[in-house]
Amino acid sequence: MRAIYWFRNDLRLNDNLSLNLALNKSDEILFVYIHDIVNDNKASWGFKKMGEHRKLFLSQGLKELNQNLGKYAHSLNIYIDDSVDILKKLVTKYKIDTIFCESIEAFDEKKQIELLGNLEINVITYFQSSLFKINQLPFDIGGLPDVFTNFRKALEHFDIKPNKPASLSNKIFNIASIKDIKFVELETNLNRYSESSFPIMDKDFMGGEKSGTLYLKKYFQSNKAESYKYTRNELTGINFSTKFSPWLALGYISARQVFFSLSEYENKNIKNESTYWIFFELLWRDYFRFIMIKYGEKLFFKRGLNLSKQNIKHDDDNFELWKAGKTNNNFINAGMNELRVTGFLSNRMRQIVASYFINELSCDWRAGAAWFESKLIDYDVYSNQGNWAYISGCGTDPRGGRLFNIEKQQKIYDKNFNYQILWNL
Fold first, then answer.
1. Strand residues in 135-257 grouped as ranges (E)
2. pTM (2 d.p.)
3. What percent of the chain has a predicted confidence (pLDDT) above 90?
């Protein structure tokens, strides 16, 4: 069988079950990555869907993926095009029987698969970005709890364990390679990454499977995990939090690889509240994935999951001030400047600037989610949409949204104004 393997947000060779499926079922494969032109177009809110930071991190990883495939006498063919259109042309040109790819259960990505199906192109998708497989859950998707705590308790009650990471199929050594000889480099710019908490021009923080795997190894060789819960809310520096999210977002590493590295650390070193909290965050990541599968496009609606409860307004002027870091609050401005300049923001500051945007600037949460999509290195459609909906009261928060006291947050997390001095440009 002649196949295309379409890399999406799974830019790795190891623990890639969708890729293994393609290798094991095919005789010849064309490996492709498509930078969809929609990413460079202005979204409905007036800016590009993918900004320069994520594009640079993506570009780094694509080069490495091509090199890794080269070790097996294969190559990665990269296109800047409409995904459906270029796949249709490649199917015809190379008489492709089947396209294999990761399943991404979000509106735009599902639409691509639907359009390919309408063209009578056979596509086999495999959902693999979560820690737990859907069939491991102790309920079907329709019965997924609408409160995270109930989801977590159910998994812990039944003591459900993730599957071990899968090795790359040996079939890659002898499968024939279809080469279109297409490797288009993405246009990228360099920014002020030296002061970033995730400096993507530093060799330890670059995009790619090798960098992500090495970072994961180094993290658990250190003692950072045992104090994670007490450092995760810091605002600046490379040593707070785990920093796994950028590599997870583009699929340079998998959630299973993180989990089993964590388990090994707990077995060899220490198992405490902080190490549990790393697992806790992986559960949140899974939960937002399953919630999107359950509710689909509703998570993109103005009122989200609470269709009749929210009176959502939007102030375009306040939106522009927030994006530019020119609000009346210097603490908020610092966070927005860091995001704009570096593409990274601590989890604590993400919550703070989101709450301010929604509750004090009276803006539409979907606009904030779109700005994060454009700017964040670690943009992930499930977590981004889920978190913004949660904070706005349009998601799964049983309290109906989160209103942060900005002055209190500043006194706790930036009492000496160091963060504001650094990022009030």
1. 176-177
2. 0.96
3. 91
